[in-house]
């Protein structure tokens, strides 16, 4: 049977890297988004709004995917609204596809907020799990839109008979524009501003994150993991953590990133110094940098998500992720984390998103 992939959120970090990997492996691949990705060769763009079921039915009328990869979400003001909106997006999609009877597998990408709590209670007292994080950790006794998304997949799988997989990456490192969670590009933009203005590259986070062990997920690793789980019998109907496979300390990596950009690194200085405040007045500076170096994006807010970087780097505990479950089932792909960052920086420069 031909494998026909529908990548939902194909304009984002995860979706775009997944689409490229699927196409490279010979899959017929459709990329669904409100503003479809037209930069990836052989990706078939699908313009649709997941909150508009009429729009979805029209856009998917002639598409019968065998594998569906849900890599998108929408940020709202409260967790209650996050739950309502993001579960509805998944429900609408799977209801429309149900009528086709073509879907064999659905993969859903969530993340470590499954263990650390939603935005409103993120990594706060009462919501601090034991690390390394393991898939068998129970759900927190609190509303969480990741749980609501999972439940929509489980219900549709029970109804329609497809298999599923849940993928929980740590911070995803990869190229994207307009993405709400984009630590790698945010740090590249911040470092570029520091270089241009002569400011020090200040660590914005907590002592625990500065000194403790951490890990991240390269978008290319996540893409391979999604394809593996959706095509491997023993991996179906399972939830998985997915990270690069190494661990690091920010106290080293921060200095390495600063050295890459040839700027002065400033480490933890007895208090959290949020990046959102540090970059609050940098919009005009970025426009000037973009014009000076003929960059493609002059809008700082479309490249940097300082608020989310602050969430990640400000956590009061070290956070690392156990991947034994995937390893035991045969997923052995590995990525060096420093190379993840440096590869990203080179790509951002090559496509004129940073100097």
What does the model show?
The chain contains 14 helices and 13 strands. It is of the alpha/beta class. It has two domains: 4-169, 3-Layer(aba) Sandwich (Rossmann fold); 174-215 and 247-319 and 335-351, 3-Layer(aba) Sandwich (Rossmann fold), CATH 3.40.50.720. This is SDR family oxidoreductase. Pfam families: PRISE.
Query: Secondary-structure element order, as H and E?
Result: EHEEHEHEHHEEHEHEEHEEHEHHHHH
CATH classification, class level of the largest domain: Alpha Beta
Major sheet description? 7 strands, parallel
CATH architecture of the largest domain: 3-Layer(aba) Sandwich
How many distinct beta strands? 13
Regions with little confidence, pLDDT below 50 for 5+ residues: none
What is the helix content?
A: 40-55%
- For this structure, what is the CATH homologous superfamily of the largest domain? NAD(P)-binding Rossmann-like Domain
- The Cα radius of gyration reads 20 Å
What percent of residues are in strands? 5-15%
Number of helices: 14
Provide the CATH topology of the largest domain: Rossmann fold
Strand neighbour order, sheet with most strands: 3-2-1-4-5-6-11
Distance between the first and last residues' Cα: 46 Å
Number of domains: 2
Morphology call: globular
Mean pLDDT: 95
What structural class do the secondary elements suggest? alpha/beta
Organism: Pedobacter roseus
Protein name: SDR family oxidoreductase
Pfam families: PRISE (PF22917)
InterPro entries: NAD(P)-bd_dom_sf (IPR036291), PRISE-like_Rossmann-fold (IPR055222)
